[in-house]
Specification:
Length: 119
């Protein structure tokens, strides 16, 4: 399963979340994390960091992922907006409340259950 995560407009926040998720043993054990860049704009040397991409295996836990996002969010002084995309499903965390975390878990578990084998 592939999940894309975007954080506000700041590349530093995206890097911070990438490091946070990479330090989480449960997430590291059951997924691979990469930072993806947008192609560079004409006249610029490099691309802009755009998204964290998670590719998960069968042992992946939506609950562990959602809790890690919420824990990271609580450490941020500016309370950044986090967008999680799984196929056509998009979930936005604005506060990291219990209700939002539950919504993330439900949405990701539902899209996992609905997924055809081998995708």
């Amino acid at each position: 399963m592939r999940i894309d995560v975007r954080v506000g407009a700041e590349a530093d926040e995206l890097r911070s979340l990438h490091q946070w998720l990479g330090a989480d043993r449960e997430i590291r054990r059951s997924s691979s994390l990469t930072l993806q860049e947008q192609p560079p704009e004409p006249g610029h040397m490099g691309g802009l960091l755009d998204v964290i991409q998670l590719v998960t295996d069968n042992g992946w836990s939506a609950a562990s992922f959602a809790m890690a996002l919420a824990a990271w969010k609580r450490t941020r002084p500016q309370d950044p907006r986090i967008e999680i995309r799984r196929g056509d499903t998009v979930i936005v965390l604005t506060q990291g409340s219990d209700a939002e975390i539950e919504r993330v878990i439900r949405a990701l578990e539902t899209s996992t259950e609905d997924e055809a084998p081998g995708t």
